[in-house]
User: What shape does this take?
Amino acid sequence: MTDWLGPAEWQAVTLSLKVSFWATILSLPLGIFTAHALARWSFPGKQIVNGLVHLPLVLPPVVTGYLLLLAFGSTTWLGGLLESAGLGLAFRWTGAALAAAVMAFPLMVRAIRLSIEAVDPGLEEAAATLGASRPWVFITVTLPLILPGILAGSILAFAKAMGEFGATITFVANIPGQTQTLPSAVYAFLQVPGGESAAGRLVIIAIMIAMGALLLSEILARRMAKRVGA
Amino acid sequence: MTLSVAITHAFAGFDLDVAFDAPPGVTVLFGQSGSGKTTIMRAVAGLLTPRHARITLGDTTLTDTAQNRAIPTHARQLGYIFQDARLFPHLTVRQNLTYGTRFARERQGPSFDRIVGMLGIDHLLTRRPATLSGGEIQRVAIGRALLARPRLILADEPLAALDEPRKAEILPYFERLQSELDMPVLYVTHSVTELARLANQVVVLKSGRVLQSGPVSDVMSDPAGLGDSTRAVGSLLNARVLRHHEDGLTELDAGGTALFLPRLDRDPGAAVRLRVAAHDVILSRSRPIGLSALNILAGSVKSIREGDGPGALVALSTPAGTCLARITKRSAAALDLTPGADCFAIIKTVAIAPEDIGGPPPV
Assistant: This one.
C-alpha cells in the first residue's frame, strides 16, 4: 500500500486515523456524562449547556477553529500554561484531535442521549428497589442498555473527526506530518498542478474508511441488540 | 414489624390523604384506578416524595417530611413487584433473580434454590426475559423481589397484566407467600378475587381517602366499606377439605357442616377459604327439603342492614363464619327476620367459582 500511496499521502492517512481515534476515545466519557445529564437530570441552565454542546454543529467551522485558537493559541494564558507543561496544542496533532473532538461532540452526545431516553426509567427504578445505588444502577442497567447508542455515537464521531477540515486548518494549520490530516491533504494536493491523482487516491481511502466504519457499526449494533434481547 | 403510613399530597385535581398500618401479613390496598393506590406504593418505596408523609417500618423511619428525612430507595430493603414486571432485558433469568442478592444487607434469607423451586422456574434460568411467557415473567419478578432479602414487600397489581389462566397460575404463589413470610406485604389490586384470596387486612381507598380498613372479613361484609364494588360484598367461609367424591365433587367440612364444591385440587386436610358473594345466597326459615342446592348452613341472624334501595343485607352467624345474604326488604319482612332468629343459608355448589377458593384462612 505504501507503494501505491506516496509518503506524504500515507502520513496524512495515518495521522487522520490517530487524530480521530484519540478524539473519539477521549471525548467518550464526557460525552456519556453530558448525554446522561441532558437526558435524565434537571438543573438550572440546562438549556444553556444544551446550546453550548450543539453550537459547533451550527457555527461555521472556521469560527470554531478561531475560537479554539483564541483559547489555546501559544500566546494565550491557557496555551502558554499547556505549552510549559509539554501539552501544547497549537500547530500539533493534539490540537487537531481537540478540534476534531469539539466538532464531533454534538453528534456523539445526540446519539447517546437518544439511546438513554429510550431506556425505560422503570428499569432503573426497579434496580433501585432491589438495592442498587445510583452509580450501580448506571453501571449495571443503563450502561449495558445504551451500548448500541454509545457505539453509534462513537462511530459517528469518528467519521466526523476523519472529515473535519475547517476548524482544524484554522486552529492548527496544514503542516505535513504534524497537522495535515486527510481532508487537509486532499485540499493541499488540489492546490498544486498535477496533484489530482494523489488527491483521488486519498478520496478513495476516505470512502473505504467511511464505509468500513459504517459496516462495522452495523454488525456490532446487531450483535448487541441480540444480546439485549431487543 | 409493622409498616405505618401517613401521607398527604396534593395533585392537580386530586388530594391524597391517607393513614393506615400494615402488620405482618398481606394488606390489600383496594380501590378503583385513580384512588391513589400506586402513589402510596411509590411513596413507601421512596420513588416519590409526598408533600407531607411519615412512613415507618418497625423502628426504621423511611420517610419523615417533618424532619426532612427520607432514606433513598436503594437503602429501604424492599421487594417491589411491578405490574409490568420490569425484568432486565439484557440479563438472563438467573442474573435477574440474583440482581438484588448482591446488594442485600441481610445475610439470612430463603436460598436461591428454594425460591426457584417454589416458583417452578428452574428450567428457565439460562433464558432471557424476551423469550418468556407473561406468567413466567411475573414469577421471575416475584423471585427477584424475594431474593433481594426484603423487609417489606410491595406488590403493585402484579396480576393485572395477565389473562385469566395466567392469573390462576400465579395466585397460588402469592398464597404461599402469605403463609410463609413474616413481613408486611402491601398488595394493590382492584380485583375482588385477589382481595378475598390473599388479604389479611384491607385498606379500601376512594379518591385519595381511606374509606375503610380492617380485617378482610369485616371489610368484605360491609357494603358501605367496599365503595363502588357492591357486587363484591360477600363473606369468607373457612373450611377444610374432607374427601373427593367420584362424581367430581369435593366434600368440605365447614365448622361441622358438610359443603360440596366442584372438584378442588387440594389434598384432604388442607384448609381453604371460600368467598361467597352475598347475592348468591338464599335464606330460608326452615331447613329446606326437596331442593337441588347441596350446601345448607344453619345459623342465626346476626344483623340486618337496609339500604336506600329495595335490598337488605343479612348477616348470619354460622359455624363456618359469618355468612352474608343479599335479599330484598320485602323478603326480609315476609320471613320475619330479626336478630337472633334461626335461619338457613343456601348456597348453590356452582356459585363458588374456582378462582374464589383460596389457601389458608386469615390469621
Observations:
- The radius of gyration of chain A is 20 Å.
